[in-house]
Amino acid sequence: MAVDAQQLSKPPRRTRFQWSWLLIALVVILVGLSYAWHWDDRGLLWLREQSASAEQRAASVWLPDYKVDIDGKSMVGLEKDEASDLSYDPVSKTLYSVMGKNAFLAELSLTGDVLRKIPLVGWSNPEGVMVLGNGLIAIVDERQHLMTMVTVTPDTKTLDIKDFPKYDLGPSVDQNKAFEGVTWDARNQQILLGEERPPALFSWKSDGSAILKGDKRKLVNDNLIMRNLSALYADQKTGHLLVLSAESHLLLELDEKGNKVSFMALVTGLNGLAHTIPRAEGVTMDENRTIYMVSEPNLFYSFKKK
């Protein structure tokens, strides 16, 4: 009996059925990953960046124009710690970072050298730090759900939580993924707080003193295209907010209305990075527009505009 050559070339119906299901499963996985990692949102934002005018770029921080200047410098003396957040002090021209694993406040130079370490007595897991000025620094403890207003001078050797005013940040959706980000927005006289997961923003009225006004208020924002929120920085020149995500390897710029403006992917080959930033936990900026970051466990980065 003659066999049709065309029939011989066709794969068995069962094999075709299996490949169809594998293809469907692959598409579902890719769609799920795209949704979880916000690849579609990033793609749309990238397209919008390409059409932004010179005026729009000048009126923003504009993260695509930044290139790494110090790329993953190891901060000597912090090898066994976990750098968690970063804040710039315009008076001393230094940076402050908190260590979440071993509780202490570290003062750093603008090149990532450790200038001093101040033990934090009574803190469980300090994850956020913010310089308000005149020696006043806010420290957020994620595990205790507390924000403490401490005073630091050049002679400060240690800080005890019982000596300073504290504010209860209240419960979180996930008690183990609570408040991490904190920044001082002088333009709008408020402290901005960031909840790690699900990513959320809150504000608390403040005149920059140790005394807060009213209660914290949740901000409606559906534009946090990230898996978690690690840190915040309020830029007073533009009024824009920088939001950092360790898990998404992303730094996102939002305008005063909460709309996405620009972003920086913290991965190998982009913005001059030789390697992906492993776990970016802190971000801040100085008056020269240099952006500083720290990553667990003890890596230091700075970015300058091209």
TrEMBL record:
Cross-referenced CDD domains: SdiA-regulated (cd09971)
Protein origin, superkingdom: Bacteria
Chain ranges passing through the membrane: 21-39
One Pfam entry name: SdiA-regulated
Cellular compartment(s): Cell membrane
Keyword terms, alphabetized: Cell membrane, Membrane, Transmembrane, Transmembrane helix
Entry GO CC: plasma membrane
Name of the protein in its database record: Uncharacterized protein YjiK
Lineage of producing organism: Bacteria, Pseudomonadati, Pseudomonadota, Gammaproteobacteria, Pseudomonadales
